[in-house]
């Protein structure tokens, strides 16, 4: 066994859809502004009673069905999320309990929008080291519960959802390489001031909201995403023309177009979900992957590059044969 390889994918989007027209009634904005600046047309919003782990369980079930594995096969659970149900126990254990899985390691990684890429990269190491034979890897988020719905500069961007994959050992090529990075000097450009130990949480309380300097985030995102995508190709001596699919983080259509241009890849070879999902943070890449797989565009053996960028800043890419 030389590789880890994705054996099945799944996704779950909450039932409720919030359109740009709905948002026009909530804040001073317009469908035209949101579409031209971000590409978002609608997003799914979790119900009051739904927790992030509930979304994860639905996506996990789909991925397990697609991979033809059951709960007894799962021997590792890693979840990328910034909006876990609780501070502890970690969301991996909550999913374990809801699925009826006992004993295997279960944990979460927190890397904002790059959460799934970090989780997948970690799981890849477990599988290739022979420490896991059937890993459940999830990216999930309910940002709607921490968004300030009166702040038009952020509330129009985000959506909720969960995407999951099953990762197994394989002799045939699967994940070829993963590339992770972070730079904490950018913390103030994008953060949420509520947590367990930061002094701000005592004053932020119910007024806590996502703080984002959108314009500056945009510039660093474009530069960094192009770089981390090229790094994956260069590290493996793979030409840009050999790539079959780009599955990017779905934050903003303009950021995606800029990365595609730098990679010299046609937008026809980019999986786009931002119009229907909004920015679902850690859920965006696995959900986009699942969309491409289930509608038959991404085929077995094809060369796929996934990439993401998020608060921290954190960034990462995964080059793989699907
Ligand atoms: N509706 C109407 N007008 C708005 C809205 C809105 N929803 N939001 C902001 N505006 C106004 C601003 O107040 C500003 O008005 P002014 O010129 O009178 O001051 C004007 O629109 C332009 O604002 P900018 O912030 O300069 O707009 P920009 O073109 O940068 O687009 C956006 C904003 C969409 C947030 C963009 O900067 C972006 O996508 N940045 C990336 C941020 C991101 O994706 N963050 C998510 C997490 S990180 C990641 O996933 C990459």
Automatic annotation (TrEMBL):
Gene Ontology BP, a term: fatty acid biosynthetic process
Pathway: Lipid metabolism; fatty acid biosynthesis
Ranges for domain Beta-ketoacyl-[acyl-carrier-protein] synthase III C-terminal: 233-322
Domain Beta-ketoacyl-[acyl-carrier-protein] synthase III N-terminal: residue ranges: 107-184
Record's keyword terms, sorted: Acyltransferase, Cytoplasm, Fatty acid biosynthesis, Fatty acid metabolism, Lipid biosynthesis, Lipid metabolism, Multifunctional enzyme, Transferase
Source organism superkingdom: Bacteria
One GO cellular component term noted in the UniProt record for this chain: cytoplasm
InterPro entries: ACP_syn_III_C, ACP_syn_III_N, FabH, Thiolase-like
Single annotated GO MF: beta-ketoacyl-acyl-carrier-protein synthase III activity
Coiled coil: none
Catalytic class of the enzyme: transferase
EC number: 2.3.1.180
Active site annotation, chain numbering: 113, 249, 279
Signal sequence interval, chain numbering: none
Catalytic activity: malonyl-[ACP] + acetyl-CoA + H(+) = 3-oxobutanoyl-[ACP] + CO2 + CoA
DNA-binding as UniProt keyword: no
UniProt region (ACP-binding), positions on chain: 250-254
Compartment(s) where it occurs, according to its Swiss-Prot or TrEMBL record: Cytoplasm
Subunit organization: Homodimer.
NCBIfam families documented for this protein: fabH, PRK09352.1
UniProt comment concerning the protein's domains: The last Arg residue of the ACP-binding site is essential for the weak association between ACP/AcpP and FabH.
Function: Catalyzes the condensation reaction of fatty acid synthesis by the addition to an acyl acceptor of two carbons from malonyl-ACP. Catalyzes the first condensation reaction which initiates fatty acid synthesis and may therefore play a role in governing the total rate of fatty acid production. Possesses both acetoacetyl-ACP synthase and acetyl transacylase activities. Its substrate specificity determines the biosynthesis of branched-chain and/or straight-chain of fatty acids.
Protein name: Beta-ketoacyl-[acyl-carrier-protein] synthase III
Organism: Woeseia oceani
